[in-house]
What does this fold into?
Amino acid sequence: MRSHLSYDKIGYWSEIKLEIVRKYAKAYSLILNAEPRLTHVYIDAFAGAGMHVAKSTGKFVPGSPLNALEVLPPFKEYHFIDLEGAKIKSLRELASARDNVHLYHGDCNEILLNTVFPGVKWEDYRRALCLLDPYGLHLNWEVIEKAGEMGSIEIFLNFPIADMNRNVLRRDPGNVDPGQIARMNAYWGDDSWRKAAYTTTRNLFDLEEKESNDTVAKAFQVRLREAGGFAYVPDPMPMRNSTGATVYYLFFASQKPVAQKIVSDIFGKYRNRGVV
It folds into this structure.
């Protein structure tokens, strides 16, 4: 490993997330590979360096790009995006032997809409599994909406409730930084999150009371179906930190009932895991 690159340190639930995505990617590739007319691809919009460091052991843990590259039967193509040049360089070295790996250095919101998604059109018999796993509110709703509209793309999505709470939802709504409001609007797609996130009652300080994390996530689940155009959105997985607090939810969205069943079964195996 190169000493000049700082690898992300991940906790127990991040390792669980990698395992969930890996298990579904294997099932997805097996099913799509049986359809000779179809070309199926894997997309990772926040790919990282390809490796992480486990907080619990200090050992290296393969990231989602490496997990995807090891799936059998293999995907026909891989598209990895990251904003940091050093991480793209690391991925290039790790995947140097694969001529079907495409790397992109830049903003995934632009690259997905303008370059990657146009290459997985339904009418071209191309399908995609796309991982949208930002660290916070760094994803635009247009990307989610486009994936739902195309019908050819299934997504795993990080719903960053901790970032939302810290910078927007648990603050006095009248004093939230306009830049943070813009980030929230960009992720949610509009300002309808305000109605979803607050009760109609006010507290002793005459401020709006925030709804529970689960209520906010439930509202976004409905939004993925009704505004995002995904037919099947199973209940998301709450992903926690070492104290048991939910830091984000892992959503899955698809147009296929069989996909929902597979993911719901996988989620069910981990949903009640204890905190480590």
Summary: DSSP finds ten helices and twelve strands in the chain. The chain has a mean pLDDT of 92. Residues 9-160+212-270 form a domain with the Rossmann fold fold (CATH 3.40.50.150). The two ends are 27 Å apart (CA to CA).
